[in-house]
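Protocol step 4 of 6: structure prediction from sequence.
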Amino acid sequence: MLERGAKFSALVASNDDMAIGAIKALHERGVAVPEQVSVIGFDDIAIAPYTVPALSSVKIPVTEMIQEIIGRLIFMLDGGDFSPPKTFSGKLIRRDSLIALSR
């Protein structure tokens, strides 16, 4: 994107590992995070607070989701009816890789 001259103020990566790689690539090209581009990932991996800048992330309740799936499978295997899906919400973990946009 940078080589093509694309202008952007934020980058959303599908996971934290990719976000960390993006921060490295931006740094190597002289792009300051978050001053020029905000970066956020998903997963909130253990190393996220220790990257430079500390990576903002969306924490997904994976443990609760797995518990729900297993419970539903056991219920259905025991003859229970399929019930409506449960909704799970992620939580924004705001760290140093995000900056507020000026209005």
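Step 5 (inspection) to follow. Strands lie at 10-12, 38-42, 56-59, 91-93.
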